[in-house]
């Protein structure tokens, strides 16, 4: 549980709760290979990067299901055709309340964490936030 890595002090930041290492794929990776990578890494989203490793999009389970539904799996189509471009992101130092507010405001379940160069360093998901809530509940119980 990444939240348990946290040292003393507040506020809790994105880097304290994010899942690492980041699971990424290049824009030219096929949607089938991205689906395989999601399954193999037990994740529900993949960050899509350009050849320099900068974040350019995100693909979620919903996007993969959509590709299957319209008959595009098996066509070796690049993931760039299915990704959401310019995803909402945070930095590792973003306070957790801002992370939660962005996820709520934009109705997203996965929030990429990127460094100052736009390269992925981790992902905050609803599952990560549930880990934090569970830990806090155990502490106050």
Cα-based radius of gyration, to the nearest Å: 16 Å
Q: How many structural units, i.e. domains?
A: 1
Under CATH at level 1, the class stands as Alpha Beta
CATH architecture: Roll
Label the overall shape.
globular
Major beta sheet, specifics?
4 strands, mixed
End-to-end gap: 19 Å
Beta-strand residue fraction:
15-25%
CATH fold assignment: CBS-domain
Structural class comes to alpha+beta
Following the backbone from N to C, one meets helices and strands in this order, namely: HEHEEHEHEEH
- Strand segment count: 6
Overall residue-averaged pLDDT value? 91
Q: Stretches where pLDDT falls below 50 for ≥5 residues?
A: none
Classified in CATH, the superfamily is CBS-domain
| Spatial strand sequence of the major β-sheet | 1-2-3-4
Helix content percent band: 25-40%
Helix count from the secondary structure assignment = 5
Protein name: CBS domain-containing protein
Pfam families: CBS
Keywords: CBS domain
InterPro entries: CBS_dom, CBS_dom_sf, Diverse_CBS-Domain
């Amino acid at each position: 549980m990444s939240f348990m890595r946290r040292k003393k002090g507040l506020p809790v930041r994105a880097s304290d709760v994010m899942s690492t290492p980041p699971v990424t794929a290049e824009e030219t990776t096929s949607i089938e290979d991205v689906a395989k990578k999601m399954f193999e890494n037990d994740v529900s989203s993949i960050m899509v990067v350009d050849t320099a490793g900068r974040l350019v999009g995100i693909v979620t389970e919903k996007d993969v299901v959509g590709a299957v539904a319209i008959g595009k799996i098996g066509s070796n189509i690049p993931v760039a055709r299915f990704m959401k471009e310019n995803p909402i992101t945070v930095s590792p130092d973003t306070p957790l309340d801002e992370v939660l507010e962005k996820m709520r405001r934009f109705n997203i379940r996965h929030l990429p964490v990127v460094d100052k160069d736009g390269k992925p360093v981790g992902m905050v998901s609803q599952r990560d936030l549930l880990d934090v809530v569970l830990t806090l509940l155990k502490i106050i119980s």
